Amino acid sequence: MKPHGPIPPGFAADADGMLLIGGARADRLADAAGDTPLFVYVGALLAARIAEWRAAFPETVQLHYAMKANPYPPLLAFMAERVDGFDVASGGELRAALASGMAAEHISFAGPGKRDRELEAAIAAGATLNLESIGEATRALAVAARLGITPRLAVRVNPDFDLKGSGMKMGGGAKPFGVDAAEVPALVRRLIDAGADWRGFHIFAGSQALDAAAIAETQGQTVALAARLANDVGAPPPLVNIGGGMGVPYFPGDTAVDAVAVGAALADTLAARDPVLATSRFAMELGRWLVAEAGVYLTRIVDRKVSHGETFLVTDGGLHHQLAASGNFGTVIRRNYPIALANRFGGEPAETVSVVGCLCTPLDRLGDQVALPAAQVGDLVALFQAGAYGATASPAAFLGQGPAREMLV
Ligand SMILES: *Cc1c(COP(=O)(O)O)cnc(C)c1O
After folding, report:
1. Is there a single domain that holds both residue 314 and residue 280?
2. For labelling, which of 22, 201, 272, 350 has a CA lying 20 to 30 Å from the CA of 75?
3. Binding site membership of 87 for ligand 1 (Cβ less than 6 Å)
């Protein structure tokens, strides 16, 4: 038997032992969707998460949603009414963000490799471009001149540090992201001289960290770097986007980030900030932390078999929807995500089984030798922490399987 990650709070069973998701029975949700596999996202959990963040962080800090974590249109529309901005990373995400109802002035567009037509779409819409390189800055200024529009331009800084303990390092050393800190002041002066509306700095040092002290330390370094750069520029940045980094517990032994501690430390950092940042506004951009726990992936058991003494529950889902849970998306050692039998949620484990998907590859394993209540063909398996980097971060077309259904309840 191998352990699985902690089931997130907010889920319970009804009297029959059926998992309730946002108050609705998992089997009824699958019926309503018409088929499995199915992602269910719970609006009440999203709203609670946003409220938790707002209670923990200073009122002066804005909350942005990094929509690559989950761009499902109904979820985006839900978030658009509740957060202060969206961060997008492609022309396609920009279109989805605009369609969600989020105002263009609250959308910022980061990401390397923006094509001229994407720069044009952002400038024409009035969104902010987080410039990733000097070459991109030159192209953005040229596009703006051609359109006759004053562009909103911020500079993404490649910081000289990274977020300790983060699952994905996005700064420090040679990186395709952002402009090396040493080159930033000259670039900002060039943008201002060219007549652009300089919006400030974007500094993103890492992702999926659970250690509040490490996040707080990085935020301190981030604000200090923004002040140093602003002093070199000789102008205050209107907005400093200090990145995100708050992760969620996926694996055995992981514990939730202490958001209250991070927020309190940020309040102290901002209270002591360099005077050059006195009038600046600040934003955090979060993807995973906002949406992961609000999502459940439901997949149905199609077959049950024993091979050389190991019991397999073969499901209609798999890595084509949950690549990360299969251990094939940026993990070195495969460990089990939080998983449960939806039909007997919270029931005593009765057997050790491996839950696999329907793809013809040994990589397609959703739960490796996990202890679950006795399961039958037709039962539903629930994978948790499925609200982020699931449906759109997995190869849905692989083996002709196609996308999962999705619903917001
Ligand atoms: C991916 C990304 C995020 C979101 O990261 P999460 O771990 O989902 O919070 C935020 N900002 C930038 C620039 C990103 O690329």
Report:
1. no
2. 201
3. yes
Cα 244 to ligand 1 centroid, rounded to whole Å: 7
Which residues are catalytically annotated?
360
Ligand 1 near 85 CB (within 6 A): no
Give the model's pLDDT for residue 9.
95
Percent of the chain with pLDDT over 90: 93
Closest CA to 108 of 92, 125, 123, 129: 129
- 220, part of any domain: yes
108/253 same-domain check: yes
Q: What is the pTM of this model?
A: 0.96
Please tell me whether residues 224 and 334 are part of one structural domain: no
pLDDT category of residue 73 using cuts at 50, 70 and 90: very high
356 and 271 belong to one structural domain: no
Comparing C-alpha atoms, which of 239, 232, 219 is closest to residue 162? 219
By CB neighbour count within 10 A (0-12 exposed, 13-18 middle, 19+ buried), where does 242 fall? buried
Domain span at residue 120?
71-286
| Ligand 1 centroid – CA 215 distance (Å) | 14
